[in-house]
Amino acid sequence: LKMSWFWLYLPLHLLMATSLCHSIKAPTTSSQQSFKTDLFNFYHSLILADGKETTIHLLKDIPRRYYFVLEEGRVLTPFSITVTPCDVPIEWSILVYKSPPGKATPGDHDTQEVSKSQKAPGMVSTIFNYKGNSVETYMGMSSHSALYLLEFLSTERDTHITVYLTTDTTSGHLYPELPTDPRIDVIGIGHTTVTLTWKHSPSVLQHRESIQYCLLVNEKHNYKSLCAAETAIRSSGMKLPPTLALSLSPYLLEPQQVMILSNSELSIINKVSSGEVRQVCMGTKNTYTVPNLSPSTQYYFDVFIVNLLTNASAAYTGTFARTLEEPEPKVTELKDGKVIHVLLDGKKQKFYSLQYQARHKKIHFTFQLCRGQVRVHITRNGKTVASENLSGLRYLSLKGKLLDTYLVQLRSTEESNSSVKVQASPHFHKPLFPLLPESLKIKSFSKLRTCRSVTIAWLGTQEESKYCVYRKRIEEDQIWRELQSADRCSGPESRHKSEKVLCKYFYDLNLQRAVTTETIKGLEAGTFYLFDVYLFGPSGIPVRYHSKVVKTRKKC
């Protein structure tokens, strides 16, 4: 729309309004009456811009009206109007007022002609109406003497829409083109993956550098437009980057969002109350395998073809698929007194299952966390009897009936790999692990440090046990890695012989005095050392105290 010619049209519009009031007789339809009333007040409303996408906010039950007219001097002008609801269904319609043939035109400024046009009857009609939440486009031809009114109404709640009017049908489209068959085909379904394909957009072949496909995955329903998808995500409490990651520029993400960029694909995962909402932009590839889905879950898939230069998009026809049920996990049998060392893959987050059939009423489970973080879930005959995160050494005593079946499920609670040792036994008086002190921490005495020695202490128990001390020289930048990667289940057999300092036995019936100290000599000045203490019980299986790093003094 060109504002210069709009002001030339303004007297004609007012004349049209006056002529319309004289020409329409009662009874009139409600749409005509609304149109008539609005023409009287049209200077309070907005003109719809030509060639630009306009965002319009609608309040519930309050109609919004926009006008447009066409360029002077053209008898017939093609035009199209595209309306995109961004949330709930809306009602919208197009009304047109045409002045009678041979009457006033924008170039007629003669007073007598104006007077005649005021008296001449005109015609108002509804040429299009629609109700729903789909993207709709109206295409038509207009004469220069026509005035158009677009009316929009939301009856469900406040919402917003986008409207695109254009009279330029020769220089291309704002929106990317969809293929003649815009369906998404599901060509593969797995337990955690779904493979999709769709036909190429003609826009990809013409403007490959500025066009890309974006995929939206969610567990709720399909979306008919990109702005509808963005609105739904925001209404779930999310703050979404503008227009669904339309470029690979980095955005500041919210804490509930995760952005992944790999193999030229940008993925954004939103954690919302109704599940994950994933957005993946994959360039111009028209086949994609969605990874890391949950088994036996229905997902909805929407593909949008996006113009990166204009931020305009078009939606393929969405589809849905249900992932396959996860196969029954392999179950390892636990035998009385036997220790099983379980390695858990943190990336897959899968349960490792152990089964034990009770031959006594009372059963004792022992868990020794070796590395990482592990959660244990125990059921008896299908009912949960224990569920917790493991820490260090954990004993669980459960009482049931003979031949009860216990299922122990273990999984890593962090992305790195974890490991744990498990034992089930009815004989608690013959424990696998030694009696433990109140704390497994090693203490060092700063005042007793010298350039060549350090003094450490640790707690013992009321049971005579064997304790072995090991030392290892390390660099300062290795400390964090050494402490994080330490396997708390590994014994002295994993250490180099040169790292062994000594072994000793001790105990004290008075726990207040069950503490021992040891001065380690022969060290180098200003050097970091890692100290470990291993406690051996009757079964010979060691328990490792928490490693301690101490630095000798530089000067003495």
Chart the SSEs and their pairings:
Elements: H1 3-23, H2 30-40, E1 46-47, E2 52-58, E3 64-68, E4 76-85, E5 90-98, H3 111-119, E6 123-132, E7 136-143, E8 146-153, E9 159-166, E10 184-189, E11 194-198, H4 202-206, E12 211-218, H5 226-235, E13 257-262, E14 265-272, E15 275-281, E16 287-290, E17 298-307, E18 313-315, E19 319-322, E20 331-333, E21 339-344, E22 352-357, E23 362-371, E24 374-380, E25 383-389, E26 393-399, E27 405-412, E28 418-425, E29 443-444, E30 454-459, E31 465-474, H6 479-485, E32 500-506, E33 515-520, E34 528-536, E35 542-544, E36 548-551
Parallel strand pairs: 1-3, 20-22
Antiparallel strand pairs: 2-9, 3-8, 4-7, 4-9, 5-6, 5-8, 10-11, 11-16, 12-15, 12-17, 13-14, 14-15, 17-18, 17-19, 21-28, 22-27, 23-26, 23-28, 24-25, 24-27, 29-30, 30-33, 31-32, 31-34, 34-35, 34-36
Helix pairs in contact: 1-3
Protein name: Protein NDNF
Domain Fibronectin type-III: 176-313, 434-542
Pfam families: NDNF, NDNF_C, NDNF_N
